[in-house]
Amino acid sequence: MVIGMRTHRTLVLVILTLLVAPRAAVAPHAQGSGSLRLYIARHGETDWNVQHRLQGWTDTPLDETGKKQAVALAESLKGVRIDAIYSSTLMRSRDTAQTVAGTTLTVKSLDGLRERNYGHFQGGSDTAPDYVRRMNTWDDRLDDGESLNQLLARTRESLQQIRREHPTGNVLVVAHRITNQMVLRALLDLTPEQTLKITQDNDEVYLVEFDPGAKPRLWKLVREKNLGDL
């Protein structure tokens, strides 16, 4: 099932449902000549995700659910000829990416794809009042951490590198919740307000398509538990 909806500027959001035959449906026309398909995945779940702790640059491993989510991501992409895989340098991202890569591809890890540095909030609760008050202020470095504007800047640099190295083909990027907000803002020219509304679960995947002469298109993989998104 495919449902289309027009949003701000030229962005067209299309929800792609993959329930019965994910190999056939995951990427229509993904092998098109001169086209670039960027699959934007979030790493699998960690214990700190469950505990609502801010991970940031803390190198936490996948939990058992996260490992299963990484396998599910690999299964969902089996119908796609992946040309390159990028991750952050944090193990939760690298291990998720490596599960997809298997023994046939090499994962390239970039510092610029790391999660936001939360400074002294790192390791604390993501519901702490002072953090919640400041988290969406774009120029707030959280004292000794990193602002959203700084995160956006390094994310842009990573995307520029990825697109230089792979101007066409199918590329998987496995990063983090807030980092992926910045990825989508950079790719789709979103406003700050639109960017902060993006909520990507640990097992969710976006696809951004770039075809010559066409505006970029955004797709989202919807699993059975997310049927309410439709």
Q: What class, by secondary structure content?
A: alpha/beta
Spatial strand sequence of the major β-sheet: 1-2-8-7-3-6-4-5
How much of the polypeptide forms β-strand, as a percent range?
15-25%
CATH topology-level fold name: Rossmann fold
> What is the averaged pLDDT score?
88
Q: Write the CATH architecture name.
A: 3-Layer(aba) Sandwich
**DSSP strand tally:** 8
User: How many separate domains make up the residues?
Assistant: 1
**The CATH class:** Alpha Beta
General description of the model:
With 230 residues, the chain is α/β, with parallel strands linked by helices. It has a single domain (29-204), classed as Rossmann fold, CATH 3.40.50. It is 32% helix and 20% strand. The protein has eight helices and eight strands; from the N terminus they run E-E-H-E-H-H-E-H-E-H-H-E-H-H-E-E. The protein has helices at residues 22-25, 47-50, 64-76, 91-101, 129-134, 148-165, 177-188, 192-196, and strands spanning 2-6, 12-17, 36-42, 84-88, 107-110, 169-175, 205-210, 217-222. It has an eight-stranded mixed beta sheet, sandwiched between helices. The radius of gyration is 17 Å and the shape is globular. The chain starts with a strand and ends in an 8-residue tail after the last strand. Mean pLDDT is 88; it is low at 1-31.
